[in-house]
Backbone:
């Protein structure tokens, strides 16, 4: 109820002490409508209903907690989206407010939620994200409170804002999920692409995060969008272009090795020919003394190629000439013995593959053109 607090006893399911009672009659009528046949009591400062059956129902549904212990029950996240949205709007009506829906207003028409119960607001924010609503971060502030009896104290309140309109249709999340709230994977799927819900989250503590790591060939999708740096660009190439072979390019950084390993595993599953691995930016050769400097750590290309079962074609150093020719649009003029050795190795391997493919085939006769 608006600006009220709830208590619970085995015989008294709903009990409130209202501070503002402008909607008192509406709330009493709502109680009679939602809980027909129960006794509604009221006096000058409070109203509620008396019913053991309703009290036991609230207890079974997990709604019998104290104010700072309340959480959104887990079964709410399995409800149809229309009912989840109704719960959010009902909570906004009861213990939140809506920004004025006028042009020029900041976040016009958004729902605003605030409570000293951080866990409860985190649950409602997660619920809003689940059904495709836009939300702000969870913020906090300290408020001074004066009770009707005159007691003064301060407490921390948590808040977030939420748009009323779903972004699902805009970003195509409903196409991905399927038409029903439980129809995950029933939408945009084929022999290479499918979707599953996150089934379990294991807390591992707080730490700095610079990237999202996803095992195997999977991607992480949040709010209908593929999270940055977890998509597989090679997958689009493998599916869209006819490929005679792939040259894998890595660099000495560990993160690059992880991404390359993921792409190679995907290529093997799709039977894409792998010609070999090249390590780019492997080192810098000093133009004055000729000393090799490993700017990005010890080169790992050969070791990585061995672990992936690929031929190691060579290591390409950092060369300012490459940048200069690229800026001039003349990169094809670049000449380096290392590049030439890699090209020769590729030609040799291609010739061997052709020889293996033609073994056992009839001899192809050629006829000289007549003069």
Residues:
């Amino acid at each position: 109820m608006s600006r009220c607090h709830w208590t619970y006893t085995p015989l008294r399911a709903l009990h409130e002490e209202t501070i503002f009672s402008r909607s008192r009659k509406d709330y009493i009528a709502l109680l009679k409508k939602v809980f027909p046949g129960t006794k509604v009591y009221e006096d000058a400062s409070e109203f509620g209903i008396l019913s053991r059956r309703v009290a036991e129902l609230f207890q079974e549904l997990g709604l019998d907690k104290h104010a700072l212990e309340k959480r959104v029950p887990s079964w709410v996240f399995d409800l149809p989206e229309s009912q989840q949205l109704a719960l959010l709007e009902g909570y906004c009506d009861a213990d939140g407010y809506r920004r004025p829906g006028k042009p020029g207003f900041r976040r016009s028409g958004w729902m605003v939620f605030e409570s000293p119960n951080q866990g409860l607001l985190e649950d409602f924010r997660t619920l809003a994200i689940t059904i495709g609503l836009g939300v702000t971060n969870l913020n906090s502030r300290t408020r001074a409170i004066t009770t009707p009896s005159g007691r003064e104290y301060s407490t921390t309140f948590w808040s977030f804002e939420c748009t009323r309109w779903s972004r699902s249709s805009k970003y195509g999340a409903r196409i991905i999920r399927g038409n029903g709230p439980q129809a995950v994977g029933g939408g945009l799927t084929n022999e290479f692409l499918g979707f599953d819900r996150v089934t379990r989250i294991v807390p591992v503590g707080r730490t700095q995060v610079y990237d999202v790591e996803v095992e195997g060939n999977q991607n992480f999708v949040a709010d209908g969008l593929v999270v940055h740096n977890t998509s597989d660009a090679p997958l689009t190439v493998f599916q869209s272009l006819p490929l005679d072979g792939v040259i894998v390019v890595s660099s000495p950084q560990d993160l690059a090795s992880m991404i390359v390993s993921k792409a190679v595993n995907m290529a093997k599953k799709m039977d894409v020919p792998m010609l070999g691995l090249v390590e780019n930016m492997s080192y810098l050769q000093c133009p004055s003394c000729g000393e090799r400097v490993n700017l990005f750590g010890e080169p790992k290309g050969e070791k990585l190629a061995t672990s992936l079962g690929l031929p190691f074609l060579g290591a390409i150093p950092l060369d300012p000439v490459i940048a200069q020719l690229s800026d001039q649009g003349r990169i094809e003029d670049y000449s380096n013995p290392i590049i030439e050795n890699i090209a020769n190795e590729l030609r040799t391997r291609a010739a061997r593959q052709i020889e293996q493919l033609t073994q056992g085939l009839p001899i192809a006769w050629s006829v000289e053109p007549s003069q």
